[in-house]
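Lab notebook: predicted structure, single chain.

Context: the supervisor wants predicted structures on file for every construct in the current expression panel, including those that have not yet been purified. This is the next one on the list. No modifications to the sequence; it matches the entry in the shared construct table.
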Amino acid sequence: MNFIEFKKITLSTILYAVVFCAAAVLAAFSYPELALYFLLNYVIYAIIVAVLVEGWKSSGKVLVESNKEKWVTYVYGIPVEENRSTLRNLHFSSLKSMRGTYLFLLVLKASIPLCLLYGFVMRIIHLEAENIDITLVAISALCICFFAVRIYVTSRAIIVAYRNQWVVDYNDKDEVTYGSAYIKNESKYVPFLEEVFR
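Prediction complete. Output recorded below exactly as produced.
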């Protein structure tokens, strides 16, 4: 079986769980912006990126690096091995197209919390004074802080892509040189594509 290792459960994972629960509660009280963020960012955006990457792959613009993972799932108590392919990194034939692609994906990602934050703030501004209580103020502050942090994190990644502040690894395939972007995260280099899904 595949178990979550306890060392992978970090403070950010716990905070995401708390914010996700708050999103469910807020959606029940007709404030769906946080729930929409999770839906748009982690489902719809991921599907859009997957479709775009598949199109770029079939047109030859991008080489896709993927990892093969074996999972054991249980169907009616019988262990069944399943092979899954996960997207690891993208390799581009030119640095200009790499920069443009990552900027496009990151600006698309930044627009999600930005639009939701705008809608949330407009709803709060137009509330009548007698409808505002301390609970609404606290929850509003949590939502505004969450959206601001997400916008900040994505903006940092946009700046890295705009300034080309990454390490490029070159690989030759079929007499064409492809480059892929990596950034330093703590003590190791990770694919820049992780910033797109972060």
